[in-house]
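Hey everyone, long-time lurker, first post.

I ran two proteins through the pipeline my lab uses and got sequence/structure pairs for each. Pasting them in order. The first:
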Amino acid sequence: MSKPKKKSPAASQLSKQERYRTKQDKQKQTNTMFIIGTIVFVVIIFVALFMMAAKDTSSTTTAAEPTSFNYSELPRLGKEDAPVKIVEFGDFKCPACAQFTGLIKPQIVKELVDSGKASFYFVNMAFIGPDSETASLAALSIYHQNADEFWKFFDAVYANQGNEDDKWATEDYLVGLAEKEKLNIDLELLRKDIKERTYYDELQRDIKTASDAGVNNTPTIFINGVKSAEPFNFDAISAEVNTAAKAAEAK
């Protein structure tokens, strides 16, 4: 009877190496599958986040509606039925508002308001100091006495604006300025309205209008309810007015 042959040490060693190599290959395959799975998972997450962001942006853009204003409550330059309505939010102590009034507003009046293409409105946003409020109360008093004289006072305050950090818009200064400009109003009534804060509630209404419209700096301009991107660029404002006019025509 023949005896079974014993495996040689070399053959036994070779078998171990093959088993080890097979184990390593399986481990590599497992690692590769794990890496691929991780990459796929990350890609899916990024795609999902991108689609959600795109959806949010799209819905925000679609949902954005022009801001509504009660134009009948606001001081106005130009025709009431002008197809485009420009609204400025300003503070009488704001240096940038003074620059806007000196540089941009005259162009708006000449090119857009006088032509009948647009009307121009103002909302008091008194926030710089206590005398911002005093100036606004004086302006509202003049507006209720004589709407045309309001705009003369408006320009005069900005043309004679004091330092932003100083309290210059006092009762005496504002009444004196109205007298100097020879406004066709009752100066004693103006003084009384400032002292008694006659139009305080109306000023608070203006400030709330600014808050509701998301206005947080001055000057801020809205054109038919849409915030202007460049309030110090008349060409940009003119282009926005033309766009608004075309949109109004199409309705």
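...and the second, right after it:
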Amino acid sequence: MTTLDHRGTAASAPAGRSARRATRSLLNCAVVATPLWAVVALTQAATREGFDITRHPLSALSNGSLGWLQIGNFLLVGALLVLGATGLRRALRGTPGGIWAPRLVGVAGVGMVAAGVFVMDPADGFPVGTPYGMPAALSWHSYAHFAAGSVTFLAMIAGCYVLTRHFRRAGRRGYAVLAAVGGTALLLGNGWSMAGGTAGTLTLAVGVMTAMLAISLIAHRCRRGL
């Protein structure tokens, strides 16, 4: 129950404002995650010798003398998504999908952190000097990286579809479409890559960034609504 202080104002008001500021800060983490990931990853993809985004996954950038840049990108962006998921949980509390959408975004963030911790093996000519083709045998940390990536992709796809349901129920057609496009882009991009399709690493990169962009824009919308 709200109590009144000696001036007759609601004593809970400052606490409410503080909680909203904290939630906005958490949502900002999800908002900045996508541009940070895109700038760091795509800048490296365009400038690092021997890297070809139509043949090499962005994860391969974790190898070589500059690999720490992409490792840091995984770790930081993953942590931002985990924090952003906490903001989404607060913003969506009591609404359809308000439990599972934040959980899935959080799982995706944990998956990205794990993908940064466990680095995939050098392969297919990158970094320069690596034999072309896949290694004859993969290391344990490469398998761990692929597992972390699978968890991340599945969680993002499911999270986007839960958000689609949330916004459809709320009558926000534009955001429902945005979330659906994000989930479908990653589903198709990952599926094409897993099937060995032409330029599959590129379609996967586009799918991941589309899903992440949808989450960032939705977090921005939730922040504005507070």
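Reply from user beta_strand_b:
Welcome! Quick read of the second one: The chain has a mean pLDDT of 94. Residues 12-47 form the longest helix (36 residues).
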